[in-house]
Amino acid sequence: MTTHSIDVLVIIAHPDDAEFGAAGTIGGWIEEGRSVGYVVCTNGDKGSGDRSVDPVELARIRQEEQRAAARTLGVSFVDFLGLPDQQLEETAEFRELIVRQIRTYRPDIVVSTDPYRRYVWHRDHRILGQVVVDASFPYARDHLAYPDMLAEGLEPHKVKELYFFGTEDVNHQVDIAETFDLKLAALRCHVSQIEGIGGGNLEEWLRQRCRKHAQGSSFELAEAFHTVVMPG
């Protein structure tokens, strides 16, 4: 199997998660010359309040929207795993799938959703975050974990840092004043998801959200993360 070393791998549950949570940071990294790829775990086929929508068609639409948003940001690739929306589970099979992505793309940084946000949090986000933690350490690192991958050319890989968005335990803020418009443009690609947000004023809603994430910093607009430096 061919591997590809990239700087940042963004592993998300649904199409649009990356744009809501981290697009300003992602756009800034890409402008700095870093390579960024996406892995989208579910097909998003339950992400609508419209009772007339066909789930199969919704999944197709959301995949197209995600590709458009990735192009807007300059993301190198988008892999769709196609798992059912709202049905991610912390299983050995799912963990192996994520280990495979990490060993294939060999990123320095992995970005995902915080598994430890309390009370109201999409279950897919919670489950995915925990699986990403475990897949990154120790499973992607250890050659005796999934030894069959070695025969495929998927060698162990040490992730250097994890970035979790949607966190209540912020320890890192990224200034996105220069990439706010890019984040907004990427988010607008998700037409099926943004209707009615902020009373129809998406830009003002997003600006207020990023101001809130900047609180306690010297930034005007920010994205907020909990970051973890991984063991050597």
Total strand segments:
7
Shape: globular
State the order of secondary-structure elements, H for helix, E for strand.
EHEHEHEHHEEHHHE
Name of the CATH first level? Alpha Beta
Q: State the distance separating the first and last CA atoms.
A: 26 Å
Mean pLDDT: 96
Low-confidence stretches: none
Q: Can you identify the CATH superfamily?
A: LmbE-like
The helical percent reads 40-55%
Q: How large a portion of the residues is in β-strands, by DSSP E? A: 15-25%
Largest sheet: 7 strands, mixed
Category from helices, strands and their pairing: alpha/beta
Query: What's the arrangement of strands in the largest beta sheet?
Result: 3-2-1-4-5-7-6
Number of domains: 1
CATH architecture: 3-Layer(aba) Sandwich
Rounded to an integer in angstroms, the radius of gyration calculated over CA atoms is: 17 Å
Count of helical regions: 8
CATH topology tier name: Rossmann fold
Overview of this protein structure:
The protein is an alpha/beta fold. The chain has a single domain (8-229), classed as Rossmann fold, CATH 3.40.50. The protein is 41% helix and 18% strand. The protein contains eight helices and seven strands; from the N terminus they run βαβαβαβααββαααβ. Strands 3-2-1-4-5-7-6 form a seven-stranded mixed beta sheet, with helices on both faces. Helix 1 (17-31) links the parallel strand 1 (8-12) and strand 2 (36-42). The model has no long low-confidence stretch (mean pLDDT 96).
Write the topology of this structure:
Blueprint lengths: L7 E5 L4 H15 L4 E7 L12 H19 L3 E7 L8 H14 L3 E5 L9 H17 L8 H4 L9 E5 L6 E4 L4 H9 L2 H4 L7 H12 L8 E8 L3
Parallel strand pairs: 1-2, 1-4, 2-3, 4-5
Antiparallel strand pairs: 5-7, 6-7
Helix pairs in contact: 1-6, 2-6, 3-4
